[in-house]
Amino acid sequence: MREDETIRAYRETIGPLYAYVSRRVGGDRALAEDLVQETWMRALDVWPRKGVPGEPLAWLQRVARNTMISHFRRLRPEPVDPAAIDLEDPRFSPQKPDVAAVVGWGMARLRRSHAEVLEAFYFEGQTVAEIARARSLTERAVEGRLRRARAGLRIRLARIVGKRAPVPSGGTENAEQTRTR
Amino acid sequence: MPNRHEPDSEFVERLRRQIESEIRRRDRFPDVRSGKRRGLTLAALMLLSMGVGAAVTAAAYQAADDARLERLVSAFEIQAGMASDRLELANAELAGLQRDLELGMVRLTEVFEANIRVAAAEAALETVRLDLEEARIMGREPLDDLAAPLVGGRDFVSERLRIDRTAAEAALRLEVQKLAGAERRLELGLMDVVDIDRARARVVEIEAAVDALRRKLEVRGQVLGGEIGDVEAGLRGLEIETEQRLRALEPRVGIAESELDLAEEALRIGTGDEVAIREARLRRLQAETGLVEAEIELARVRRQLGEQR
């Protein structure tokens, strides 16, 4: 593995990679640094054999995502105030580390395709149209996937926040409907 | 002062220095895999022995006299010799890997896998010796069905089932250890979740095999005790094998779904292609189809069993 090539990839990606991880852990600096470091150690395991990938940031984000899933799967977070997790609010985004830990714990237990669409919606702030375009899906398909993913997440979060878990607001408008406007 | 999602410069520099020193360390101590040559030898020997296995079957079908028996026994003797060589090689490979492990040149999982190969080679040798013995006594190819008669007062069917069960139990213990190791690697972020699913599927598959062998031994006992007849024993054997297949297939559907997710993700980030997605879809479809086929087969066998009783 060429050292200069790797260091160049590091310098180009460290900012966006850190931001990607940090947003998903609610800005917990120590945890974000540990996860980014772990991601890079894994790159050093693989890149010498396969070479630096064509899209190093995409590769690192994928590995970082797996590393976060592993992290959230092995830890049971402390319960948080259910009011802090309003999945129906289109502006909801886990800003605090304790809320991010609970949401991350739930997302780590979802199907990958469901977790990804929720991540794009809650962590990246993408609209339904943007998510649909990025995944070559129709907006209707994304809305359906978001609805199913949110229902799955709600069930899982109920194990952490108990009966006071956020519940859907029934027939009222939901988050993705609001954000499409 | 960086914003909350921006790395601080001290961390960026510290990690850069760590990466540089890690690259230099790895350049000085590259990963040495000394087991490859032994593995190739073993693979070549296995291919050769598969050819001998075909010769055994061919001999059984083609001959009809003393010459037939001679050829059959001779083929089994060759197969026993090959099985013995395979065991010797597997033991040598294991000893080599254990030495490499002490030097930190291989991972523990590679030693686990070599252990499984030794257990499988031991079982294969014992089984072929039993086959040879039965062929010599009866002058025909050994019988494996659960309703087969005793041979000279000996129950070769149960003996073979017990050997298989012992090997499968050894494999299960090792696969469970491998799974635990894989879970530890997952916690460190060194493994994909789908790899863990595969390891769990392997454990489920071997558990199903161990359970099936245990149940076959029970059925064999019932046959010898005169509790059930030949036809029911045959159907019960089929039921056990189909249930085993069903248990092993169920986790594969989940794995196929995860692989499809990965292929779709790879396409999205520009490292995959449409062909890989279609292949992943095909694997999912095959897994689902296999499951449905096994369910239909099981229902059919159970209906026949109901009619029989």
User: In total, how many beta strands of chain B?
Assistant: 0
What is the tally of beta strands of chain A?
0
- Form type of chain B: extended
Query: Can you give the helix content of chain B as a percent range?
Result: over 70%
What name does the CATH topology of the largest domain in chain A carry?
Arc Repressor Mutant, subunit A
What is the count of DSSP helices of chain A, taking H or I runs of 4+ residues? 8
- Computed structural class of chain A: mainly alpha
Largest interface: A-B, 47 and 35 residues
Biggest sheet record of chain A = none
Order of helices and strands of chain B: HHHHHHHH
- Beta fraction of the residues of chain A? under 5%
Q: N- to C-terminal separation of chain B? A: 81 Å
- CATH class category label of the largest domain in chain A: Mainly Alpha
What's the CATH architecture name of the largest domain in chain A?
Answer: Orthogonal Bundle
Number of domains of chain A: 2
Poorly predicted spans of chain B: 30-45, 60-64
Oligomeric grouping of the chains: heterodimer
N-to-C order of helices and strands of chain A: HHHHHHHH
Tell me, rounded to a whole number, the average pLDDT of chain B.
81
Draw up the topology in text:
The complex is a heterodimer of chains A (181) and B (309).
Chain A: H1 3-24, H2 29-50, H3 56-74, H4 97-107, H5 112-122, H6 128-135, H7 139-161, H8 175-179
Helix pairs in contact in A: 1-2, 1-3, 2-3, 3-4, 4-7, 5-7, 6-7
Chain B: H1 9-28, H2 36-62, H3 66-102, H4 108-138, H5 156-187, H6 193-224, H7 230-268, H8 274-308
Helix pairs in contact in B: 2-3, 3-4, 4-5, 5-6, 6-7, 7-8
